[in-house]
Design a protein that fits this description.
five-stranded mixed sheet; single chain; binds zinc ion; about 35% helix; about 20% strand; alpha/beta; 5 strands
Length: about 180
């Protein structure tokens, strides 16, 4: 049966023909990318990532939500537990938060649009408001701060913020990488 997946499965067949399996190892780039699920901003293509380079977490807007914080906490645990003896013990990886221009979540900054979206999808208005990216430079800074202030963030993980411009294809660093302040015991 032909479905919309058929051409993509054909591409996979081409891919598998020359594929070499990768061993489980630390991500080569030592970066975890958080970005929007928008099909115009695929980090693998925009940042030239190869298999084995970097875990990528994507959601609407590329926002630092609680599930994203949970994933990062688990990745840090796993990195330390499995690969802690290799290389720099006091540094695990950098989380690069990337928001982008022309984000489809930008509509959600408008209360009327948000209200309608909530009514027709059943999602809560506050959840929709949390995913809104109207100005990526502002939201990426807020999200870097949110992650850095989370008690779940490992002190061995640094966080940086970037904006991808859909018009130019260029990624600009908005917040330089930094480690969390030590949390009070
Ligand atoms: Zn987006």
């Amino acid at each position: 049966m032909t479905t919309r997946m058929t051409p993509l499965l054909d591409r996979n067949e081409q891919f598998a023909r020359t594929y070499t399996p990768l061993a489980l190892a630390p991500a080569a780039a030592q970066v975890v990318v958080v970005s929007c699920l928008d099909h115009r901003v695929d980090p693998a293509i925009v940042l030239g990532l190869q298999l084995g380079d970097a875990p990528v977490i994507r959601n609407a807007g590329g926002r630092i939500t609680q599930p994203v914080i949970d994933d990062i906490a688990y990745l840090a645990y796993l990195a330390e537990r499995m690969f802690g003896g290799q290389g720099t013990v006091d540094r695990l990886f950098e989380v690069a938060v990337i928001h982008h221009t022309q984000c489809g979540t930008g509509f959600l900054a408008d209360p009327a649009f948000r209200h309608q979206a909530a009514e027709s999808t059943g999602l809560s208005e506050s959840a929709l408001e949390e995913s809104a990216v109207a100005d990526p430079h502002t939201t990426v800074k807020a999200d870097v701060e949110r992650l850095l202030s989370s008690p779940l963030l490992s002190p061995k993980v640094s966080v940086s913020g970037h904006v991808y411009d859909v018009a130019t294809g260029r990624v600009t660093t908005t917040v330089d990488a930094r480690y969390p302040e030590p949390h009070p015991a």
